[in-house]
Specification:
Elements (H helix, E strand, L loop, with lengths): L11 E7 L2 H7 L4 E5 L3 E5 L5 E5 L9 E4 L15 E3 L3 E4 L2 E4 L4 E3 L5 H6 L1 H9 L21 H19 L3 H11 L9 H16 L2 H15 L5 H11 L5 H11 L3 H12 L5 H20 L5
Parallel strand pairs: 1-8, 1-9, 4-5
Antiparallel strand pairs: 1-5, 2-3, 3-4, 6-7, 7-8
Amino acid sequence: MPVIHNARMPFLHTLSLASGLNGWLATSLRPRLLHVFDRACNLIDERGEVLSIVTPQIGDGPFNLVIEENICFSEHLRLESEIFASPTQLHLGDLSVAVANARIWNPCPDWEKLHAGKGEIGHRLSQLRMTNYPMPGMEIGFAAARSDSMTAHVQSLVSNLSSSLAAADVPSSLLAARKLAGLGAGLTPAGDDYLMGAIYAVWIAHPFEVAGALAKKIADTAAPLTTSLSAAWLRSAGKGEAGILWHEFFNALLSKDQARIEESKTKILAVGESSGADALAGFTGVFASWMEKAGFSHG
């Protein structure tokens, strides 16, 4: 599909919409552009809630509206561009996005099914080739970790978080989450990426009610301490929502196809400079700690 450059466009067509976004479109009074990239643009409303408009290459996410056209947003929009939202249409500068016929996408994996298969999932995780990053997740992507002392500090934080979440130790988990939130550089700092992956592991390792309460507390604690976009990802994880690449990874873990698991892992590792690796490190770190506490073999 060719990229559309500089053409004035009456409207774009929506392929899919995360299930929670209908309310955003219907009730946001003063949306504005938060970021503009080539393949995505992020909107934020007066409540601090984010909506991302993305091209098909990025695909479904917990707050994504996926358009059909392969447009280059950075050639059409500036941060000052006027935004107007309604339940059926979005206006972004001179662009319009038709929403009414969008496929509704559910961002919540089947956590209860994943929890039921947690033992097998742990075994399959232990078989992954981990040459791309340390396991359990260490200092990957932590821009602040430039000295031995800082590296040791980060190692201690992620170790404490992983063991606390594996044990569903709420006070210790929240203490570690406060220290990791916002740690690192970028729109989604590495500490937040690690927390997001860690929360996904919580949903699988613990029963649904326990996981839901713990995940929400971690997200509510960390979100106010970081960037708007990172907070949106954390709050989504706290509600049990994940992007399409994680859905594919979880589905692969439920299969017996190790090649499929490796392929979906590789796609996550390719996200951002280190965001995917940091999130996957959080996921595997918590899961490894939970397996050790639960007495599972890693062989």
